Amino acid sequence: MNTEELKLILNDKYLKYNTLSFIDTDPISVPHAFSKKANIEISAFFTSAIAWGRRTNIIANANKLMRLFENDPYEYVLNSTENDWNHLNNFCHRTFLFPDLKYFIRALRMIYLEQGGLEKVFSEAYGKRERIEDALLHFRSLFFSLNYPARTGKHIADIGKGASAKRLNMFLRWMVRRDKSGVDFGLWTKISPADLYVPLDVHTGNVARAFGLLRRKQNDWKAVVELTNSLKKFDAKDPVKYDFALFGMGVFEGIQ
Hints:
About 50% of the residues lie in helices and about 0% in strands. It is mainly alpha-helical and about 260 residues long. The radius of gyration is 18 Å and the shape is globular.
């Protein structure tokens, strides 16, 4: 298969899966339930943070968490007290447990009250050199600048140690990418979609290798960079749009 043939396939699958019908079966459906910017950001952040395992479980638990936040996550994060958190103590998603949830609330409160919010934190770190890597590293350092449980550190990826940062890259795709389909939000305008990285998971990795877009065997940061650079050959301004194509072919068409 030559480059032009592969581009036609990727574009066709991108158009097939980047549609409103995709939303209902994907974790992005959770932030789509909100209209206020801060609620979209915070619900998307929590949803992406627990986005591993079965998608049905991810969606169910993320929606459960939003109900526990009284369907106003911004208000809850900023104004709830630790005494209000007792009803959260049974929440869990796989290894994401109550101690992790409590710290996430405290860290997000600090980010919104002292740092100007999630968009400002990511955008300012990115803006100095227009590098997503800088934003990811800065965000993690800031997020864990409070006294945090050691167990919680694993829930925010560290690309400095080679992590693929699938969930953070997915969160950034949701916030930054913008097109006419209405799936991704495109709320953050100071980060260029051209600089985003693919949210690499088992499905996208397997399909990418099947099409010769990725040679590295491990799903780590080096693989993320390699795959994203391969996809830039097809669309340098919006390479991560092909996440829809690779993920869709892996999940819905069984390509491995």
